[in-house]
Amino acid sequence: MCRRATGAGSAAHLLARASDLRWTDTGPQGEVQLSSGYGRPFCRACGSPLPEVVHDGAYVRIPAGLLGDHPSLKVAEHIFVGSAACWAGDPAPSFEGDGPPRTDLP
């Protein structure tokens, strides 16, 4: 579900106590709800995924891409690795920006 919800190989989230989260702007919110029971809250103005309450309301799962700064955090765990994309973690070359010019595409 993470791949389909994000269009990426995985989803990066932060877990925080619900009591520690302070909303600064609630904006127009919506939620995608699938028949499987999976749901994802999102911002109706920009489409960004929103934090969601989990673990019986005790915690909030925050999409890491929402952060506007560079917090001093480290990866604590990887979950659902049994359903990871076959190409996740591929040792392909990495580039700081968009990469080299694409002249070899068909």
Condensed summary:
The chain is mainly beta and 106 residues long. The chain contains one helix and five strands; from the N terminus they run αβββββ. The longest helix has 5 residues, at 2-6.
What report would you give on this structure?
This protein has 106 residues and is mainly beta. The protein has a domain at 11-68. Helix content is 5%, strand content 22%. It has one helix at residues 2-6; strands spanning 13-17, 29-33, 39-43, 52-54, 59-63. The strands form 2 sheets. Strands 1-5-4 form a 3-stranded antiparallel β-sheet, with no helix packed on it. It is globular. The two termini are 31 Å apart. The model has no long low-confidence stretch (mean pLDDT 81).
Alpha carbon gyration radius: 17 Å
Order of neighbouring strands in the sheet with most strands: 1-5-4
General shape: globular
Biggest sheet character: 3 strands, antiparallel
Outline the fold blueprint:
Blueprint: H1 2-6, E1 13-17, E2 29-33, E3 39-43, E4 52-54, E5 59-63
Antiparallel strand pairs: 1-5, 2-3, 4-5
List the defining traits of the structure above.
106 residues; mainly beta; three-stranded antiparallel beta sheet; two-stranded antiparallel sheet; 1 helix; 22% strand
